[in-house]
Structure formats: C-alpha cells, structure tokens
Amino acid sequence: MKSYIVGNWKMNFSVGESSVYLHKLQQKIRAFRSVEVIVAPSLVALQPLSLQVDRKKLRLAAQSANPHDFGAYTGEVSFTQLRGLVDYCIIGHSERRQLFHASDKDIRASVAAALRNQITPILCIGETETEHTFGETHDVVRDQLLGGLSEVSTEDISKVIIAYEPIWAISTTTGAHLASPDEIADIAKFIRRTLTETYGKEAGENIPVLYGGSVNPSNAGAYLTVPGINGLLVGGASLVADQFAEIIETAKKVQD
Ligand code: 13P
C-alpha cells in the first residue's frame, strides 16, 4: 500500500513564506509513486500554492472547511469553494475539536461534504491525556471513528484516510510523552478491527491509517514500520523543509 506523509503547517507562514517553502521542498524531493506527499498550508495560501504546486511531487490539503456548500456563514470557507484547489482536507483535528469546539455533528458533516466535493477527508481521531490515563482510549477512538464516518456509505469508505493522533503526544518538546510503537500498533489494530466490523474486511485492511504526534526525522522510521500504519501526519517538523524532506526520504526507504 502507498504511504502518506502529510505536513500540517497549522497557523504558520505568510503567503510569501509558504511559496518560498514550497519551492524549496519541490527542489529537494523527487516524485515517488509509493509515497504520497501532502502539505496543508494556511487557507490564505492555498490559491497561490495551487498554481505553484508540482502535482507529480506533492498535493495540497486544507486544514479544515465548512460543511455547508454556500450561504450565510460569515468567515467560513466551504469544501465546494476548495474544490479544485486541494485534493485533501484534514477534518476533526484535535485543535479544531478542543479550541474551536468542532462537534461530532460538524465533523461527520465535513467528511460527507469533502466526499461530495471530490476532496479526500483525512479524519483525525485521538484521546486526551486523561482519557488515556483512565484506559478509555479504545472507547474514544471508536466513538470518534464511527461518529466521523457515520454518513459515509460502504461505497465511499475506500476514499477516506484516518489519522490517529493521541492528544497527549502532540508537540512534546521534552519527549516525555512520546507514544511508543507498541501503543500505536495496538490502536491501529483496533481501528482496523472497528472498520472491518462496520464496513467489511476490505475496508479494514485497505483504508490508510496514519500516525501523528511529535514525529521528527529521528523517529519517523520507527513509526512508519508500526504494523497497520501507512503514513504520518507531521506538525512541527513539517515547518522545516529539510526535516520534512528527510521524513519523506525515510518513507520511501521503508516502502522499498
Ligand atoms: P506535532 O508533530 O507538532 O506534534 O503536531 C502533530 C499534529 O498535530 C499534526 O496534525
């Protein structure tokens, strides 16, 4: 199966800086059939970058969008408006859930809207530190997974990507809270079992499941070889083109 390396830039870089970064990254990386490279810049940079991007090397993603196609939703941008600019959209990132109160209803409507507009949803799921400590990870992951996918038909399920991001492992600078490959393998297996029970064996085996949380060039190889994991969702390290390119190279080596 293909591997996916996604860089989530979050709210970083001006439009000019985004363009300089993209130019640099495109010079550094080669086009790989086995690794799909995706960057998710800030919304304001998507239109100019969509003209600059070399689609043989990488694809663009939005970080969030509004599930309504058009209408009186001041300040929002819809999947319909993003159609043609991006191939992917991150949906239900923990920062959207926690800081901007994205509800389960918004998230499942967003997944459906992405599919309706030919944009591949990257559905993020993951538990908080407290839920992790109290052994509630499987329950939370199952609820977020099935909640987010509840409007997706069996026919469309193959068009979805899942990203497991335990909130306690995001942006840890000390490394004290890094998720271990064994923990991630357990959750990847659980996600696949849940998908199989709901959508059948093929979905359980073939839907890409990514890992995210403090991924960097030194640990990328270990995370990419976790059974059941098909790629990485990278935050901080994706902001440095050299580091992101190194992670992409690692993914290529693991695929070979
Ligand atoms: P970090 O890689 O900075 O931990 O961020 C992970 C993340 O939230 C990606 O979506």
- List the bound ligands: 1,3-dihydroxyacetonephosphate
**DSSP strand tally:** 8
**Topology order in helix (H) and strand (E) letters:** EHEHEHEHHEHHEHHEHEH
Q: Using the alpha-carbon principal axes, give the shape.
A: globular
| Percentage of residues in strands | 5-15%
The biggest beta sheet reads: 8 strands, parallel, barrel
Secondary-structure-derived class: alpha/beta
Low-confidence stretches: none
Radius of gyration, in Å, reads 17 Å
> Numbering strands along the chain, what is their spatial order in the largest sheet?
1-2-3-4-5-6-7-8
Helix content estimate:
40-55%
| Number of alpha- plus pi-helical segments | 11
Q: Estimate the mean pLDDT confidence.
A: 96
Terminal CA distance reads 11 Å
Structure write-up:
This protein has about 260 residues and is an alpha/beta fold. Helix content is about 45%, strand content about 15%. The protein has 11 helices and 8 strands. Strands 1-2-3-4-5-6-7-8 form an 8-stranded parallel β-barrel, surrounded by 5 helices. The chain is globular and about 45 Å long. 1,3-dihydroxyacetonephosphate binds near residues 171, 213, 214 and 237.
